[in-house]
Fold:
Amino acid sequence: MLFKMAGISAGALVSIALMSSGALAQTIGFSQIGSESGWRAAETTVTRQEAEKRGIDLKFADAQQKQENQIKALRSFIAQGVDAILLAPVVATGWDSVLEEAKEAEIPVVLLDRMVDSSKDLYLTAVGSDLVHEGEVAGNWLVDTLAGKQCNVVELQGTTGSSPAIDRKTGFENAIKGHDNIKITRSQTGDFTRTKGKEVMESFLKAEGGGANICALYAHNDDMAVGAIQAIKEAGLKPGTDILVVSIDAVPDIFVAMAAGEANATVELTPNMAGPAFDALAAFMKDGTMPEKFIQTESKLYTQADDPKGEYERRKDLGY
Amino acid sequence: MNGAARFARRIAPQLAILAAILVLISIVFPGFFEVRIANGRLYGSPIDILNRGAPVALLAIGMTLVIATRGIDLSVGAVMAICGATAAWGSTEGYALPATLALSIAAGLACGLWNGFLVAVLRIQPIVATLILMVAGRGIAQLITEGAILTFNQEGLIFIGSGSILTVPTPVIIWMIAGLLFTLVVRWTALGMLIEAIGVNLRASTLAGVNSRVLLIAVYMASGLCASFAGIIAAADIRGADANNAGLWLELDAILAVVIGGTSLLGGRFSILASLIGALIIQAMNTGILLSGFPPEFNLIIKALIVLTILVLQSPATRTAAIFFRRQPGTDPADTRTVTP
Structure:
């Protein structure tokens, strides 16, 4: 295995040496899943920006949610002899043979955002967010904000059974464990959508004494929180004051709500997965530094004190 | 038997099921029937059912007519997304409310025209013909919103989703008026009978002089029109058009509402009112599940069990059994009358 790794780095060094101007003007192929969500679109935009910043020639392939398109894209990248490949895999399985091909061609592959079920020596590293950690950051914020006050929390879960829903729930529960003042009284799925978030929140408000028994809302994503905020307003309560609102993702619209004082905190799922990936690739190509097998992106907490207006302006054109 | 009594018997099973579900919810959640006025509008769980049921109720109106012609319209959910996106786009581009609504409704009618053209002129089977727009529609909606959730702040448009007239939420008023108007149009004229005739036997009714081609196209356009109302309401409700999720799977809820309403998928006799009650039954289940506080993993199972119970009660075999038992001495006929045709 060590021998193989040395082979890859040697190959990388050769390809760099062949280039007249050193490590600059690399060509990197990026196989993106598609644009199924605003976040995904933002990831594509940010990846292009990061590549431009570093003077990398990015070859972009949109797979339109199909693995076969991604495999085709990867094969074409290999045939073109790119310096590296970024892959945001649409599913976890079925990548072995194409990753082997990339390895034989001595092209390092970095996974973005999602993992694959292949052997770890088939890719250089994976960049992603720790979903459990995101839930923990949200939970810790609530624990700190309440400072021991009694609080009944209602939870809007993501799509039942999806890994973000399971992990973000687990993380939040980890964070509030041992803090007996915080109790999750109701938990339902809002399918990650605004409409369902609003509908479910309406029923929470009715079931909990018109909202009088609810002290905070934890939503697994911002979109559900945005829907729920409208439900809280329509029930005659003040979101952000009467009911604290904390959610995850940091999409532009939640910053609008935060600027208006209607949401309290959000945890960022950064669309900048490519930045750390390019950095790891650069280090690897320069002197063969092996990155860790999983590079965890920061799950940054934003509150009303963190210039929500400015954050909105910074994000609104990223394609969310 | 006069018409009113026959009509009451027609919708009696649906009303009984709705009542049973409401009683069931009030057992699980005692404060269910509490309605008060908050912020100048009615506030309470029964109002939520009427309000949240608006999209499916509207879709069910159009779907009833389509199914009565022995057709089906799978595209209504996607058409909702298109019309919601169109409304949001019009609003963000600065068009006045009437223009925005007209654009959105025109989009819905155009979608219906497309479906109607495929079915009536090209004679493609309805399930396949409308499947095309079901798949492509979301793509079209995404093109309009450019993949993001397109938010807007036009007060007039928002009013359609979350405003109220005389304390009644606007969506409730819209679906009730739509239901009334469609019923009047098809029942005060021969239109309803012609639609049923097409559903029973297309060739025979065409030979008898019914302009089936025009009528079929009109029915799919009516479905598109209803979908555009539903799409506008769904977008106005969250103040944004979500091309990925608006109306997702609602075509199935609409079909279910029609089926629960007792209209046969084989076409022929239909009742818009029964379909509307069917839509309320579906929404009552959804709201009840949310109020009950069960973990979300149970949502779909509970819903499936209730639907199964309803359909078993309505099945021909059960009806035959009910008639058989009614003839037995010692049984109360009033119990079984509700499930006989």
In short: Confidence is low (pLDDT under 50) at residues 333-341 of chain B. Chain B touches chain A through 35 residues (CB under 8 Å).
